[in-house]
Amino acid sequence: MKLLLLEDDDLLAESLAESLKDNGYLVDLAASLKAAKSLMATEHYELAILDLGLPDGSGLDLLAQWRKQKRSTPILILTARDTWEDKVIGLETGADDYLAKPFHEAELMARLKALLRRQSGQLSQVVTLNGVSLDKAGQRVCLEGETWRSLTATEFRLLRYLMLHPDRIHSKEQLLEQLYALEQDAAAPNLVEVYVARLRRYLGKSIIQTRRGQGYFFASH
């Protein structure tokens, strides 16, 4: 589970990032609007945490821009601005939740989990692409006109990530980062090859393709 943390206080950002990692999240840090925009343009995040007072502008402006672009990423505002007027403005601009500083870590983690539950409930439980249907609730896959096949947890995570980011090349290292958030040191790059080979046996070689020297991608057509 990968999230973006936009916070310009270095000490708070590092401390919060460590806490988030301890709770199983992958975290990208940004200390400015420019850095956050760059990351959002190239990465996919399940959730974002935004501070409002930043050195190059307001987090509210960035939030408004993302919503105008139809980005549905859940956003939690984390800020020292704690009046009810500030909260109303943040929520009406497009934030999904608002937490004032100082805060208790347990409350933040609970709010993040609630946002992710809400988001998962809004999304379709079956993703279909290029004749492949993935049942996220049942952790199973099927080709058009065929029966469902159950997947292991790792097979499911790999296929789900590839299908949610079709036609984008992912290196082995990037895929390992998604699969083994809490145990990267124990994971070897050849594990990706093993699980890609398994999925190809189920789906055929044309669905998950290799770009030599770069990585793998799910072909959308």
TrEMBL record:
Q: Which residues form a coiled coil?
A: none
Q: Which Pfam families is this protein grouped with?
A: Response_reg, Trans_reg_C
Tell me which GO cellular component terms the UniProt record holds: cytosol; protein-DNA complex
Checking InterPro entries in the record gives: CheY-like_superfamily, OmpR/PhoB-type_DNA-bd, Sig_transdc_resp-reg_C-effctor, Sig_transdc_resp-reg_receiver, WalR-like, WH-like_DNA-bd_sf
Identify the residues that the record assigns to the Response regulatory domain, covering every copy: 2-116
Q: Which residues bind DNA?
A: 124-220
Keywords annotated in UniProt: DNA-binding, Phosphoprotein, Transcription, Transcription regulation, Two-component regulatory system
Which CDD domains does the entry link to?
REC_OmpR_PmrA-like (cd17624), trans_reg_C (cd00383)
Q: Which GO terms describe its biological process?
A: regulation of DNA-templated transcription
The lineage's top-level taxon is Bacteria
Under the GO molecular function aspect, what terms does this record hold?
A: phosphorelay response regulator activity; transcription cis-regulatory region binding
Q: Per the record's keyword annotation, is ATP-binding included, yes or no?
A: no
Protein's name according to its UniProt entry: Response regulator transcription factor
